[in-house]
Write a structure and sequence with these properties.
By secondary structure, the chain is α/β, with parallel strands linked by helices. The chain has helices at 24-37, 42-47, 54-61, 67-83, 94-99, 114-123, 146-155, 169-178; strands at 2-9, 11-14, 21-22, 89-90, 106-109, 132-133, 162-166, 181-185, 195-197, 203-208, 211-219. Strands 6-5-2-7-8-9 form a 6-stranded parallel sheet, covered by helices on one side. Helix 3 packs across helix 4 (67-83). The protein is globular and about 55 Å long. 42% of the residues are buried.
Length: 231
């Protein structure tokens, strides 16, 4: 059962992995290899990944490592992720949604490097954004809101007039902190968000007079009426 909700915005800001592209296979293989390389528990390593930059992940997992060592490990990870980019596919509905939007009404905000961002989007058959804020473009990664706020500035829109699509707990926390409106994509049920969808097939965009009107079909809670909520 779903409820139809409608909301308008000036711009849409998207996380990439888990939101626009399914890169789980590539990420899993590379970070399991990293765990083996450092004799770490793979479950602990994989639990540290969502929404965070490779630098922050490595620094947290290898607390005794100096900056040079962390940088070398990040380079090792990126090289292997780039080699497995061909396993990446689109999240259902991503291509349809992105191609329905004018060029400078959306951006990607990701913890991946710029090279990895371009390769994964291309591998998934998705358009490249005019604006992308990547791991190397920010001083602080998610859950810090810096990336989302930077993307809004680059699009010349108020962050309060943006919808922010995220799948991870750190990403949704960054979205909340930014001042924008979060949309949870296949996120855990206990992660709060005003809007929630299983994938992007549930989102339809209509653009008119410089604004984007979204129709969102989200799982209905017991508190919502059968006809849905219209904002």
């Amino acid at each position: 059962m779903t409820a139809l909700r409608a909301v308008t915005a000036r711009a849409l800001l998207f996380d990439m992995d888990g939101t626009l592209v399914d890169s789980a296979d590539s990420i899993d293989r590379v970070w399991r290899a990293f765990a083996t390389r450092h004799r770490l528990d793979p479950a602990t390593v994989l639990a540290a990944l969502p929404g965070r930059t490779a630098h922050d992940i490595v620094a947290g997992l290898l607390p005794a490592a100096d900056l040079s060592t962390v940088g070398a490990e990040v380079a090792w990870i990126r090289e292997r992720e780039e080699a497995t980019a061909d396993t990446v596919t689109e999240i259902p509905g991503a291509r349809r949604l992105l191609t329905s939007l004018p060029e400078r009404t959306w951006a990607v905000v990701t913890s991946a490097s710029r090279t990895m961002t371009e390769r994964r989007l291309t591998a998934a058959g998705l358009p490249l954004p005019a604006v992308a804020v990547c791991a190397d473009d920010v001083r602080a990664g998610k859950p810090d809101p810096e990336g989302f706020r930077a993307a809004a500035r680059l699009l010349d829109v108020d962050i309060a007039d943006c919808l922010l699509f995220e799948d991870s707990a750190p990403g949704l926390l960054a979205a909340h902190r930014s001042g924008g409106t979060p949309v949870a994509v296949a996120a855990p049920a206990d992660e709060p968000a005003p809007y929630r969808v299983d994938d992007l097939t549930a989102v339809t965009a209509h653009v008119s007079n410089g604004r984007i009107r979204l129709e969102i079909r989200q799982p209905r809670t017991r508190a919502e009426p059968a006809e849905g909520i219209r904002l």
